[in-house]
Amino acid sequence: MKKACVIGWPIAHSRSPLIHNYWLAKYGLEGLYERRPVSPQDLPEFLQNLAAHGYVGCNVTIPHKEAALQHIHHIDDVVRRTGSLNTVYLVGNKTHATSTDGEGFYRNLIAMVPGLSLQGKRAILIGAGGSAKAIIERLLRAGIGEICVMNRTSARIEDLKASFGSVIKILPADHFVSESKSAALLINATSQGMAGQPKLDIDLLALPLDAVVVDLVYVPLETDLLKAAKARGLRTVGGLGMLLHQAVVGFEKWFGVRPEVTAELYNLVAADIEKEQHS
Ligand SMILES: NC(=O)c1ccc[n+]([C@@H]2O[C@H](COP(=O)([O-])OP(=O)(O)OC[C@H]3O[C@@H](n4cnc5c(N)ncnc54)[C@H](OP(=O)(O)O)[C@@H]3O)[C@@H](O)[C@H]2O)c1
What we know:
The protein has two domains: about 1-100 and about 240-275, Rossmann fold (3-Layer(aba) Sandwich); about 115-240, NAD(P)-binding Rossmann-like Domain (Rossmann fold, 3-Layer(aba) Sandwich). Helix content is about 35%, strand content about 20%. It has helices spanning about 15-25, 45-50, 75-80, 100-110, 130-140, 155-165, 175-180, 225-230, 240-255, 265-275; strands at about 1-10, 30-35, 55-60, 75, 85-90, 95-100, 120-125, 145-150, 170, 185-190, 210-215, 235. Strands 2-1-3-5-6-4 form a six-stranded mixed β-sheet. Strands 9-8-7-10-11-12 form a six-stranded parallel β-sheet, with helices on both faces. Helix 1 packs across helix 9, helix 4 (about 100-110) packs across helix 5 and helix 4 crosses helix 9. The longest helix has 16 residues, at about 240-255. The protein is globular, with a radius of gyration of 19 Å. Bound molecules: NADP nicotinamide-adenine-dinucleotide phosphate. NADP nicotinamide-adenine-dinucleotide phosphate binds near residues 104 and 216.
């Protein structure tokens, strides 16, 4: 039986087992996806002996997404450009790694807003952490014209400029309203708005009516940002779809079937999130 897992330290909160075990059952595949706590000191040994530990691959989460790079045989261009990985798979007896957050973000966006063209357009990105980097890498490949980044810690935007060049612009908070007048896309890639975290305090009034507002946060499923955007008549995309779409790549590599992101899967994971929120 093929087995995959998610490794992290700690690992208690991952919803990946729910997603992958749903697909295994749906496609009638004999396999298992489990949570596996791996400490930073055990990480090199675990990745170097993935098959001996019984796995065909794994997802990698906090705090190992950067540290894992040096213990993988082959990393792809996305990992090279973003400096982090989240999916490991075996080819023969060699480990290969990719990063699927950017792809998950993009596929979900296109699924929710069919026909959306980003060619030459302006995006406003709030946040400059790991997910912001993954999104920038994917938006550049989609032909985005300019990405204005707003972040609490401005030094992190300088790092993004150093990695991705002049397509990245620094957006000071007091310029947000004026600069949002010509934005096609607004993305929250911070934890603001997540249950138990501070609210994201921005004013959407200047965004054009054809702009799309995306929130990576998926607890709650509909954040205050998305509610405010809907109230203005803007198109909105929540974070749960990205989580589901980013899982597709790993599942196909490990189990040999390209799985579908369906409403049934969305509802299954959404129900789990709602159950947690009300417990
Ligand atoms: N839907 C999905 O599939 C998916 C995938 C990945 C991530 N996410 C979500 O995206 C969010 C960011 O994840 P990440 O991996 O990029 O995390 P990260 O690397 O830790 O970055 C966190 C970002 O949030 C900002 N931030 C955190 N608390 C803040 C506060 N109180 N006020 C202002 N800014 C604050 C940080 O600003 P500083 O630089 O100033 O610290 C940074 O820009 C999380 O909510 C995560 O759950 C969702």
